[in-house]
Amino acid sequence: MAKLIAGNWKMFKGPVETLAFFDGFEAPDGVDVVLCPPYVSLEAAVGEEWPIYAQNVHWADEGAFTGEISARMLVELGVEGTLVGHSERRLYFGETDETVRLRAEAALAAGLGVIACVGETEAEREAGETEAVLTRQVAVLPRHEALVIAYEPVWAIGTGKTATPDMAQDAHALIKSLHETRVLYGGSVKPENAIELLGRPDVDGALVGGASLDAASFSSLCRIAASLS
Ligand code: 13P
Prior knowledge:
Blueprint: E1 3-8, H1 15-24, E2 31-36, H2 42-46, E3 53-54, H3 71-77, E4 81-84, H4 87-92, H5 97-109, E5 113-118, H6 122-126, H7 130-139, E6 147-151, H8 165-178, E7 183-186, H9 191-198, E8 205-208, H10 215-228
Parallel strand pairs: 1-2, 1-8, 3-4, 4-5, 5-6, 6-7, 7-8
Helix pairs in contact: 7-8, 9-10
The site of 1,3-dihydroxyacetonephosphate (13P) has 14 residues, from strand 8.
């Protein structure tokens, strides 16, 4: 099966920078690519040839929820899926396992693909709680063929610290024993460490933050993934 490389742009790139990225981005056959721009850049991005996912979605169809976006609105725009449960949402915006479940279910019901993020904090890993945390976070996720899980150890996000390929492999094997799905690794993935990480048997792809912002480095990651598929 082809590896899946997803770029999460977080709060970077308005519509103008989004179009400039696509001018410089290319990916070969043999890799599945997804890009997750901020809401305001989704419309510019869906005109391009790659599947576009949002970074979050609300569970209601509509309503008095200031600042939120529904799955139906994303579908109307031509968006094909969404992230849910990113650790930055959990850490800064009060996201819980329960709201992650609600968001994932609403997105799937609307026909969107879902990349659901799980991962332990540094304190949880040091306390030996990684397995318990991942088990708890994965337990709430719906069983659905359009749902993919991203394992993103919180201590490896944007820090330059990467899980060793063995740590990633162990976590992915655990997640796959709990939920039959593709599992992506996320946390400081870049062209320099991608071969080792993506080469492990249960690492089905990557969710990439910083290195997805630059068209050349994201193209390079996609080429590496295609060569391993
Ligand atoms: P970095 O690749 O910048 O560490 O971000 C990872 C991430 O959070 C992707 O969702």
